[in-house]
Specification:
alpha+beta
Length: about 280
């Protein structure tokens, strides 16, 4: 049968166990201290911060007396486990290996976040300085020049010989439905192939310039191509050209003009810093 250890003797025993978990004198505790675990205070501030990580329903439960008691016990248990882990796990080879991987991941994430923030803040500065900002007069002038949007269907292929063969085959096609049959059969663009090759309407400046010019200058219902772009080889058919109001086009035109100004700014950066593209294709 176990005997109870007198309190004074227990205190002496704990003190003799070393200085790894010193007891915190009550006069040094913060006023909102809820518990002391392994010599470390758990404060109401700690409690509230942990509660903020909970779901809304659990946050409401923690505000009740029973909820606070349960959550406090949970936090105490977490601190106890941490204290044991600090003593038994910290410094072990496997732990240090895992921490090395974690640090590397964190460094990579921090680098990515830093670079993203730098670019975002630069774009904000360029807008504030007027380098890429767009005025209402510029938007109105662009709309006067291009008061319309164009809808086309296309067939995308990665082989010029195949594109030429398909173009010969559909040269006399004059309906969107028939063109769509060829798009579903031959197009390498799965997103549009199932729609008969149909692309969203675009204002000049929103789509590939190699496509926009022939689309604007061709009659509706007549296949054009094949046209080479960075995506591959295209056969296109204009479906319709329709007017668009300034109100409906304003935001899109602003994005077009801002992109054009950004491209111009990037051209100056190429001259300033230099760019060398190494083509390793085929090596």
């Amino acid at each position: 049968m176990h005997k109870l250890i007198p309190a004074a003797l227990l205190i002496c025993f704990l003190c003799a166990c070393g200085n790894e978990t010193p007891q915190t004198p009550e006069e040094q505790l913060q006023p909102d201290t809820l518990a002391v675990i392994a010599g470390t205070p758990l404060t109401q501030t700690d409690f509230d911060a942990a509660a903020q990580e909970l779901d809304k329903d659990f946050q409401n439960f923690v505000k009740t007396p029973a909820g606070k008691e349960n959550f406090l016990n949970f936090l105490v248990n977490e601190r106890l486990l941490l204290a044991a882990a600090q003593a038994d796990i910290a410094g072990a080879p496997k732990f240090e290996e895992e921490m090395a991987v974690f640090r590397k991941e964190q460094e990579a994430a921090l680098k990515t976040r830093r670079e993203s923030l730098l670019r975002t803040m630069l774009m904000e500065k360029l807008r504030n300085d007027g380098v890429i900002s767009v005025s209402e007069d510029e938007i109105k002038a662009y709309h006067r020049k291009y008061p319309y949007q164009i809808t086309i269907a296309h067939i995308l292929m990665d082989d010029p010989q195949k594109a030429a063969a398909v173009m010969r085959e559909i040269g006399n096609v004059r309906t969107q439905d028939k063109f769509g049959e060829y798009a579903r059969k031959f197009s390498a663009d799965p997103a549009t192939a199932k729609k008969g090759g149909l692309l969203p309407p675009f204002i000049p400046g929103e789509y590939l310039p190699e496509i926009e010019a022939p689309a604007a200058n061709s009659p509706a219902g007549q296949p054009q191509g094949f046209i080479k772009t960075a995506l591959g080889f295209h056969i296109i058919m204009k479906v319709r050209e329709e007017s668009i109001s300034l109100k409906n086009a304003q935001e899109r035109i602003q994005e077009i003009l801002e992109k054009q100004k950004t491209d111009a700014y990037l051209a100056t950066l190429k001259e300033r810093y230099g760019v060398e593209v190494i083509n390793n294709e085929g090596k």
